[in-house]
Specification:
Length: 176
C-alpha cells in the first residue's frame, strides 16, 4: 500500500520536529530484527534516556535532516532504517545502542549526527565510551575548584601567619 503525499508530508514534519529538538540522532539497521526485538530495544531506551526510536523511510528522513538545517548523512540512509532521537544526553543512548548491537547480530549501528557533525559507526562507539554527563561535570567542577581553593589559601596565608605571630607573642605575656 502506497503512502499518500499528505502522509509523507506529515512524516517529514514529524521527523523535522524531532530532529530540531534532538541533541543527536543515531541511525541503525534493524534488518531481520523481530517486532519483539525492536520492542525490547525501545523499552531499554525508554528506561535509560530521554530518547525515542522510530522506524523511518530514508528519503523522508533525508528531507527532514535538510529541513532541520542539519547535514544529511546520505551514506547512512540505505536499507531498513531506525533512527534514535536523543532529546537530552547523547552518551547514554549511544551506549544502549552499541551494547544492544554487540549482543544481536541482526542489529547494527550505522552512525549518526551529533550537533552538526556526522559520525560513522566508530564515532558512535566513541560516544558510547565517554563517561556519563554527571562524571564529566564533576571532573570539570573539580578542575575549576582545585585552583580556586589554592588561590584562596595563598591569599589568606599572610593574614594567617600574622595572626599566628601575634598569637604567639601574646601567649608568653599572659603567662608571665
Amino acid at each position: 500500500m502506497a503512502i499518500t503525499r499528505e502522509q509523507k508530508e506529515a512524516f517529514v514534519a514529524e521527523y523535522t520536529e524531532k530532529l530540531s529538538r534532538s541533541q543527536a540522532a543515531y541511525i541503525t539497521d534493524y534488518r531481520g530484527l523481530t517486532v519483539a526485538g525492536i520492542g525490547d530495544l525501545r523499552k531499554q531506551i525508554r528506561d535509560q534516556a530521554d530518547a525515542e526510536l522510530t522506524i523511518a523511510k530514508n528519503t523522508l528522513l533525508g528531507i527532514a535532516f535538510q529541513n532541520a538545517g542539519l547535514p544529511v548523512p546520505e551514506a547512512l540512509l540505505e536499507g531498513p532504517t531506525a533512527v534514535l532521537f536523543c532529546y537530552s544526553d547523547p552518551v547514554g543512548p549511544a551506549r544502549t545502542l552499541t551494547k544492544y548491537a554487540a549482543g544481536n547480530d541482526l542489529f547494527t549501528v550505522k552512525g549518526g549526527v551529533v550537533g552538526r557533525s556526522v559520525l560513522d559507526q566508530k564515532g558512535v562507539q566513541g560516544m558510547a565510551d565517554l563517561p556519563p554527563r554527571e562524571v564529566i561535570l564533576a571532573t570539570l567542577i573539580g578542575a575549576i575548584q582545585g585552583p580556586a581553593q589554592a588561590l584562596f589559601s595563598t591569599l589568606n596565608a599572610p593574614m594567617r601567619e600574622i595572626t599566628q605571630v601575634l598569637h604567639a607573642h601574646g601567649e608568653p605575656a599572659a603567662e608571665g
